[in-house]
Amino acid sequence: MYIIFYMEVIMIKILVVEDEKPISNLIRISLKGAGYTCDQAFDGNEALDKIDETVYDLILLDIMLPEVDGFELMEYIRPLGIPVIFLTAKDALDDRVKGLKMGAEDYIVKPFEVAELIARVEVVLRRYKKTEDTFELNGLYVDASSMVARRGDKEIPLTPKEFDLLLLFLRTPNTALYRENIYEKVWGGELEYGSKTVDLHVQRLRKKAGLEKELKSVSKVGYRLDV
User: Fold this and answer.
1) Rounded to the nearest 5°, which phi and psi values hold at 185?
2) Which of 63, 65, 149, 214 has CB 3.0 to 4.6 Å from 156, enough for a Cys bridge?
3) In contact, 16 and 60? CB cutoff 8 Å
4) What is the pLDDT of residues 24-79, one digit of tens each?
5) What are the CA-CA distances from residue 109 to residues 61, 80, 100, 116, 123 (Å)?
6) Could you tell me the CA-to-CA distances from 78 to 102, 174, 219, 221 in Å, in that order?
């Protein structure tokens, strides 16, 4: 029972922002078949709402969108540190250059082959170490596959939730995470008003893993792991 939940927690989550539903559905089915979880947004405002509510590992972003276009969305996404692949029918050189200069990791022109899309997604995720199984940070070694964390030769006795929390921070370094997003990723639900669950677990994780300096509080937001 625990193993199934753990795999759900660490699964890569991708947001597809595409207003053409047949294309969006094809991408969703293809990503699911490759082992990813996927949310869909069909206009710019819906995408903004989803980005505010959920922590994504990658965003596939069309440019020609209703309400708010892809370039405007990119301005909002860039400070969040979420990698973006532009996916669009706009194949003019100026548009590709603009998208890359704005911070996009890649630019795929429609129509495209599904195999190419999946390959490019995997490249970007590896670049951001979203699929890494092992991590090292200032003497802390973490192996996700064996669920082991240690300093030197000494194993750190983390609870399952503390280990999932540590993996979340390691996979989103230098990014301020809202308490609500942390709870949704690790506990799989909605954080109740006034709950101190996230704060208590972060405090214990800091002490156990020796991350007092690296794992910092962000006022009125939540926490950030500085690397």
Assistant:
1) -75, -40
2) 149
3) yes
4) 999 999 888 777 889 999 999 999 999 988 888 899 999 889 989 989 999 999 88
5) 11, 25, 13, 11, 17
6) 8, 13, 20, 18
